[in-house]
Design goal:
It is a single chain. This protein is mainly beta and 98 residues long. Helix content is 14%, strand content 55%. Strands 1, 2, 3, 4, 5, 6 and 7 form a seven-stranded mixed beta sheet that branches.
Length: 98
Amino acid sequence: MLHCRLRGGGAAPSCRSFTGREHVLTNWSVIFTRVPDLQARVLRTAVSGSEVWSEWEMSGTSPEGLPALFVGPVVMTVRDDRINWTRFYVSPVPSVSS
């Protein structure tokens, strides 16, 4: 569940910070358009107080039929049992030609 005043962003300079659940919905809608069969796995987590660090692996297929793989850490804080702040450091993994 997302806190109503969720704040977040990405690590890259092009990833602007944002506030609100609506922005999260917009971001994930774009991601699912680009990789409609996206599957996410959380490989590891570490929790300290309200802070959660996790390692993510997301995979799927692009509309062109190409494999897509994204990996990296995600850092979150929790308030009132909801995600209050998040930052994604997830990056695409380049495909390797045989």
